[in-house]
Structures are given as structure tokens and as C-alpha cells.
Automatic annotation (TrEMBL):
Annotated Pfam families: HNH
Transmembrane portions of the chain: none
Comp. bias regions, Low complexity: 17-26
Protein name per its UniProtKB record: HNH endonuclease
PANTHER family: OS07G0170200 PROTEIN, SLL1193 PROTEIN
GO molecular function, one term: zinc ion binding
Residue span(s) of domain HNH nuclease: 105-154
InterPro entries linked to this entry: HNH (IPR002711), HNH_nuc (IPR003615), NA-targeting_endonuclease (IPR052892)
Amino acid sequence: MGSNGKSAIKERRPGREAAAGSAARSPDIPCAAHPRVLLLNAGYEALTALTARRAVVMLLCGKADVVHDNPELYVMRSATHEVRVPSVIRLREYVHIPYRAKVPMTRAALMHRDGNRCGYCGVRATTIDHVVPRSRGGEHSWENCVACCERCNRKKADKMLAELGWSLRHKLVAPQGRNWRLVSSLREFGPHWEDYLVA
């Protein structure tokens, strides 16, 4: 292993036998199959989601410490090291990140804002609806988009809420806060991430 921690690291995910402590070893799996790792600043603010390889290199170089392990036993091995891939790590030294107030609206961020619940009926949301339909001049914005279930989406179609006698379950506003820019770029959260990605 080189001093920078970047030697040839092989990724493995032990099977049940290995997880139970036996000498059995699972076949190598591609790095892309590993979950991403949430990186926190020294003050526990969420910064970004790293690849598993990058997170392990930071741990080996002494730049970060493990905050939460991943419940799934993902392991990376080299000739001299074996490192379990964590779920959350934290920088040892604080880095200053410029604050950007405007949060881009993505499907993942909007679903997170609405708690993955339909803004009309409250069941699990699977799509996004424009409250004022685009065909009627509605904008693709935080204030006009809402998480929606398939049933409500089909029933509403290009109608206005007043035409259906419907109302929204909550006011639609653009989220604010440092973490929302990160949330907008994520497709899914790893274990324990919710503790650091609050609104």
C-alpha cells in the first residue's frame, strides 16, 4: 500500500459465511456496485456523497474518520489493508464551503420536500404534478410542482384544482438551507443519512 492510500484496492462484499466470521470470501464486485458514502464537515454538516473508493482513500490517508458503518458488509481489500466501507464519514479538519441560497429543483429534492407523499391525497407519491398545468401557463418551479400519486395525476390531468374541488395538503415553497443543494443531487439516501440531511 502506498503512502497515499491509492494502491490497487479490490472491492468485496462478503457473503453470509464471511459475515459470520468464517474464512469464506466472496467474489470481487465492481466499485460501482458499492453504495456511496456521505461526507460530513468537521462540524457534522453534510458536504457531498463520495464514491466508496474515494471515502476509503480518505480514511487510509487520515483525512476523515468513520461516523456510521454501513449495515451491509461491504469491504475493500489491498495486499496489506482491509477496510469496511462506511455509510457516513467526517473530515478531521474543517473546510469552508461558500453558501449558495438557490436550490435547483430536481425530482429527488421535490420528493424529499414533500415526504414522498401525494400533495392531494397523501398516499405514496410516484410522480410529479404541475398544480397549474403547463398547458395553462404553469411554471416548472418549486411553487407549482408537487409530489403526486399515479391515480391523482391521471384524474387531475390538465385541470385546475378549483375545477375538481381539490386543495393542496401543504403550501408549496422552495426549500432553504445548505443541505438542500446536496439533496437535490441525490437519487437515494444511505443508512443514517437522514440524520444529517434535514431541512
